[in-house]
Amino acid sequence: MVFVVDDDEHVRTALARLIRSAGYRVETFDSAEAFIERADLESCPACLLLDLQLPDLSGLALQRRLHEWLPIIFISGHGDLSSAVDAMKAGATDFLPKPVSDSVLLDVLERALGRARRMFESRAERADIQSRLDHLTPREREVMTLVVAGYLNKQVASELGAAEKTIKIHRARVMEKMKAGSLAELVRLAEKAGAAPTTDASR
C-alpha cells in the first residue's frame, strides 16, 4: 500500500495514476489530519509519499508522529536544503523535489515498500512475543527474567526464596508458553520484546 498526502488535487491524481500503473494499491489524502483520521496503518505493509507543505500539520510534524510506523518519502516543490536535512535526520527514506521523474519515484517506492514489509513483519513478531509474555504468571515472569540474565536454577531459587524443584517447573512452563526450544531462543525472544534484564548472575 502507498499512501499519498498532498493538498494539490492534480498532484494527488497524477501520483495515484502512476502508482496504480505500477501495480501498487494507493490511497490519497488532502491533509495530514485526514490521513491521521482515516489511514489504516496496521493491516498491511505501507509507505507514505508526503508533501512538505500542508494546510494543517506540516509534513515534518507528521513525520515525527509516524516515522516508526512506516517509511516516509518527502516530495515537495517548496523544499529547501535545511528541510531535506531535517527530514533525513528524522528517518525519511528520501526527499524528492517536484517535479520528479516517474522512474525515479517508482524506484524509491520499491525500496520503501521493501523496508515497509520488514517493519511490518517486525511489529507482527513483537506483538506475537508480547502475547506469549502476557500468558506468563507474575512468578513465571520473575523466573524468566533471572533465567535470561544467566542465573542457574539454584541461583533463581535462592533469589526468589523457592525450592529448586519448583523453579524447574516454572522454567519448563516459561519455555512452553514462550515456545522457546532453547535458552538462547528464550533470550532472543526477551530481547525482541524489550524484556531482557540489565543485570546478570555475575553481579
UniProtKB/TrEMBL annotation:
Residue ranges of every copy of the Response regulatory domain listed in the record: 1-113
Modified residues (4-aspartylphosphate): D51
Keyword presence, NAD: no
Start and end residues of each HTH luxR-type domain: 129-194
Alphabetical GO biological process terms: phosphorelay signal transduction system; regulation of DNA-templated transcription
Superkingdom assignment: Bacteria
The entry's keywords: DNA-binding, Phosphoprotein, Transcription, Transcription regulation
GO MF terms, alphabetically ordered: DNA binding
PANTHER family named in the record: DNA-BINDING TRANSCRIPTIONAL ACTIVATOR DEVR_DOSR
Protein name in UniProt: Response regulator protein TmoT
Organism of derivation: Paraburkholderia ultramafica
Organism lineage: Bacteria, Pseudomonadati, Pseudomonadota, Betaproteobacteria, Burkholderiales
